[in-house]
Amino acid sequence: MWEQLFAGITHFRLDWRDVIDIAIVTYLLYRLIILIRGTRAEQLVKGLIVLLVALVVSGLLGLRTINWFLQGLMTMGLVAIPIVFQPELRRALEHIGRGKIFQRSVYDHEEEHFHVVLEELLKAIPVLVKKKIGALIVLERNTGLKEYVETGIRIEGIVSAELLINIFMPRSPLHDGAVIIKGVILAAAGCFLPLTENPNLSKELGTRHRSGLGITEISDAVVIIVSEETGVISLAHEGKLTRYLDEKTLRSTLVSQYFSISRQKKKKLPAFLARRFNLQNGEEE
Fold this sequence. Notes:
This protein is α+β, with helices and mostly antiparallel strands. It contains 12 helices and 7 strands. 58% of the residues lie in helices and 14% in strands.
């Protein structure tokens, strides 16, 4: 075996195709590690690596029974892996589907109406914070959230501060669920969202934060969360949670994250939006 390995190294030749091939595989492995890091799949991958190492070692040492058992286990694993890793595989395919090739040209429409929704949100959120009313507001983007809209009560109304405040009032029958906003339309309220699979999330964060973070792990939605206990404003996007935001920081963060893909495409916000935000920031100062 060592002679064959030495001969292979001696006669090894590397051309430009091999370099490209290795670079692509390395990048894909890196993206895979980023995708599963901090999820339950991370521990499962570690277990598979241990089994693979044991399979190789048992073969080298001539432990036939153990090697036969591990080979059978790995064969069954080929069938079990797609089932066990179903959430991660779905998440990976959705990331691919949100690539530039498949993107819908909806940003012009979003840019026309985003400031309307933003102003209504910034009217409602200070009231929710002052009265410590918990809220979970999902802003749909490229990834459709129809399956989660169907878990709640259809509203199909124009977004307004008054409507949002009334939905999240403690005695309202819809206050415990999430509100999903599509464009300028409040599609549904009282919606159920998937919980995050991140095991490293702080224990002090409750179901509202975990579900808000969970929907951003499987979609490109932007989620605003107001804590019922502390009144703290948080923003979830791409599986990351930003906490302790004030109104001004929330505005700038929403603009930055909501138009992140559009900025890559256009390099800057539309002129009328840029002038509007600069004007408003100047008035606040």
